Every structure is written in C-alpha cells, then in structure tokens.
From TrEMBL, chain A:
It is found in: Cell membrane. This is Binding-protein-dependent transport systems inner membrane component. Residues 73-288 form the ABC transmembrane type-1 domain. It comes from the Bacteria. It is a multi-pass membrane protein. Signal peptide: none annotated. Its main location: membrane. Belongs to the binding-protein-dependent transport system permease family. The chain crosses the membrane at residues 12-38, 79-101, 108-129, 161-183, 216-236, 272-292. The keyword Transmembrane helix applies. It holds the Pfam family BPD_transp_1.
Length: 297, 52
C-alpha cells in the first residue's frame, strides 16, 4: 500500500514540470482570454465586466465588430479553402517522391524540401515580395523576357493573382512539415503488402490507391486537421505581403482581431473574436474528424 | 534498364522541385551578403554598372 502511494507520488512528480508549464503558458492565458472576453478592456488598465456584450456585438449586424469579424472570417475561410487541399496533396506527393528515391539520397531531398519551414515568416515574406512585386519582381521580369505582352500582373494587388501568390508561398514555406509526417506514415506501411500486390500484378497506381492511401488514412486525417488549424491561424503572409489588400480581399480574421485590440483599443472584443474563431476551428476539426473516422468504420 | 530510367526520372523530378525550394533561399542569402562580398571582392561585382 505504502509502495503504491510512493509510486503514485513519484509518477506525479515526473508530470509536475510539464503540468506547471502547461498551466502557466496554456491554461492561464486561455482562462484570462475567456475572462477578458466578458470585459470592456481598453488595453491600458481599466477593466469592467459587461457580460455577453462583446459576443452580442460580434453577432449583431451593423456594428463595427460584426463587420470586422465577418469580413475577416470570409478572408480566412477563402485562405483555408484555397490552401488546405494543396498543402495536403503536395505534402503527400513530395513524401511519395522522396520515398521512391534510393535510400542514399532520401535524406538530402528530405532536407531540401523541409528547409523553407525553418525560416521565419518575415524572411519568407521578404523573399516572395521580391519575386511577386508588380514592377520590379523577378516573376514579372521573367514573364516579360519570355515574351508576355500587356501590362504586368499584379501578383500582390489584383485578384485572383493575390490568392495564387499567397497560397504558393504558403505551400513553399510549410509543405515540408506535412511531407515529414507523411514520410513517417509511409515508412509504417508493411513492405509485405507491396510484395503481395506486385505478385498479383498490381501496378504503381493500384498499389497507391489500394495499399498506400488506406494504410496512411489515420496519418492523413491528422495532417488534414493540423493543416486546417494552421490555415485558420493565417496572419503573417497577408499581414506582411498584402496588408489585407487589394481592398479587404486578403484581410484575414487574425489581422482584424489585432486591429481591434491594438487599433481600436478594445481588448475584450478582440478576445471574444478570438474565442469565437477558436470555437469555429474546433467545430470544423471535429466535423472533419467525425466524417473521416465514420467513413473508416 | 527500365527501372534505371525510372530512377533517373525520379531523381530529375526531385531535383527540379528541390531547385524551386532551395533557389529562393540561396537568392535571399546572396542578396543579403551582396554588399559584403562586393566590398571584399570588387572584381567579382554582381552588378555590371558598378564595373569601370
């Protein structure tokens, strides 16, 4: 009995450092964000409890908070819809490509494809702003030299080009992470299945459809949900590269939350917007998880 | 023979995509170091207009 008590204490002590960090850096900010969403806070000092007023403003058409929320959410949804399929499919394609190479060169190509993920958002934005600039950008100069007639394409200030540019640089920047997770999933697929399929005369396409994809379904679900969450949290690319333009086309919700907090000095309303965004992300992730797990069952 | 050609094609494809991933990074590093390199090695100036 005494031994069991000691064992429990020892295991609890092992968990304690993680729990302290978890409580300090996750639970406390989350709880204070929730509390803040019920308050009128001017980001300077005075706080006043106002109940559900901030949430009411978000869902009342005609209010500034509602307009900023809806406009930002629309931009965020567009980004999620445009980027997530590419991030998942290109990540899987790169993983399949790297896995098909000989083991001697796999590490080299894995490093190359993963390298952009290691750089900061500002460096990524600086690189791609130089490429996509309308007048002096590398891409438009290249198109000119290739004989393209007519005015320059406004990659960062014209629709739909602005979305193509943002999605392209996001793929370049973050797809390496998805690729690494897919590679781990592919390495878990038993080699015997492929050998049996080869003996049965299955070609590469059949092996992909009937063995690889079903075997990595659970990993694919994780990658899909993580990518959706990451895309909902988009901020740096539009904030640094387009400033939300042209017009409000690429203004995403996090930019508006930032503007409400530090531009309008309404910390409580910004917190409420962030919490509603978090709830939307939870609902979308749960629905997708249920749909994919249901199909598996 | 066919397997070798397939492997070569895969390497070529991976290299082509890898170039797309690595060139922007190298380009950025080159631009950031351009003035330093030119200061030390004026004869290897990146810009033709700076040459006598």
């Amino acid at each position: 009995m005494r031994g069991s008590w000691r064992s429990k204490l020892t295991s609890s002590l092992f968990v304690l450092p993680y729990f302290v960090c978890f409580a300090l850096f996750l639970l406390y900010p989350l709880a204070s964000g929730i509390v803040l969403s019920f308050q009128d806070y001017d980001m300077l000092g005075s706080r006043e409890f106002i109940g559900l007023e901030n949430y009411k403003n978000i869902f009342t058409p005609g209010t500034l908070i509602h307009d900023l929320f809806v406009r930002g959410l629309s931009g965020t949804f567009k980004f999620v819809i445009y980027s997530v399929p590419f991030l998942v499919i290109v990540g899987l394609a790169l993983a399949l490509l790297v896995n098909a190479l000989s083991t001697r060169v796999q590490g080299f190509y894995r490093t190359i494809f993963f390298m952009p993920y290691a750089i900061s958002a500002t460096v990524m934005a600086t690189i791609w702003m130089r490429v996509f600039d309308t007048d002096t950008g590398f891409l438009n100069i290249l198109l000119d030299k290739m004989g393209k007639a007519g005015p320059h394409i406004g990659w960062l200030n014209d629709t739909p080009w602005v979305w193509i540019a943002l999605v392209f640089c996001t793929i370049w920047w973050t797809v390496g992470f998805n690729m690494i997770i897919f590679i781990n999933g592919l390495n878990e697929v038993p080699e015997e299945l492929y050998e049996a399929a080869r003996l049965d005369g299955a070609n590469a396409w059949h092996r992909l459809i009937h063995i690889t994809l079903p075997s990595i379904r659970s990993i694919s679900t994780v990658v899909l949900i993580m990518t959706i969450i990451a895309s909902f949290n988009v901020f740096a690319q539009p904030f640094l590269m387009t400033r939300g333009g042209p017009g409000y086309e690429t203004t995403v919700l996090l930019m508006n939350i930032f503007a409400v907090a530090y531009g309008q000095h309404q910390g409580g309303a910004a917190s409420a917007m962030a919490i509603v965004l978090g709830l939307i992300m939870m609902v979308v992730s749960t629905v997708i998880y249920r749909l994919l797990s249901g199909r598996r069952g | 023979m066919r397997t070798k050609i397939n492997r070569l094609l895969l390497i070529l494809l991976a290299t082509a995509i890898g170039v797309m991933f690595i060139v922007p990074l190298i380009w950025m590093v080159t631009i950031s170091l351009k003035s330093d390199i030119e200061a030390f090695l004026p004869d290897l100036s990146f810009s033709r207009r700076n040459r006598p």
